[in-house]
Amino acid sequence: MTCSSRFISALSILYKCERKSHADEYPLYTPAEETITMGKSSKNTAVAVKSLIEPLIKELGYSLWDVEYIKEGTEWRLRVTIDNTAKITINDCEKVHNAIEPILDEADLIENSYRLAVSSPGIERKIATPQHYIACLGDDIELKLYSSVDGKKQLVGKLTSFDEKSDIITLTQADGQEYNIKRTAVARANVYYDFG
Q1: FRET partner for 141 with CA separation of 20 to 30 A, picked from 54, 110, 128, 196?
Q2: Could you tell me the pTM of the whole model?
Q3: What is the CATH number of domain 130-191?
């Protein structure tokens, strides 16, 4: 693979990844024996990539917050978002990129040319999975809903609970108003930060 790097921000590193072949430099990391199969959808690609790289990212001392495989204009992008208990730096992003690139090359899961970006979740991190909601308990969040609740399609408040069994998010606004929202009713969720 030939990769030309471009720095996108202080917390993100982006590489154009074209095709392939690197030796595995991480002998402690052993991918699962079974072949990861995927359909043609970008979601399936992201799921397959996550399964492949998450053990190595954990071994490096980070958690894998998200993987997205999306088309922007004419280009495909593979976005890998990492986190840890300390602040993620550009060096962390580069370290993870250098570790996962040969693994992705060897597995050859993605047929198209794509840009690989490794970044931190940022202040207003996206919340999508049950694990994300659990990790963000007590944080102020913003929910954008598919349908309005009490005449509102956007809610901001503290994430006071998340019930995995019922998939219900409980959000409490500053005035004490509480909303119980099914996760499937949420179009987009993120941690809310008041920049004002």
Answers
A1: 54
A2: 0.72
A3: 2.30.30.100
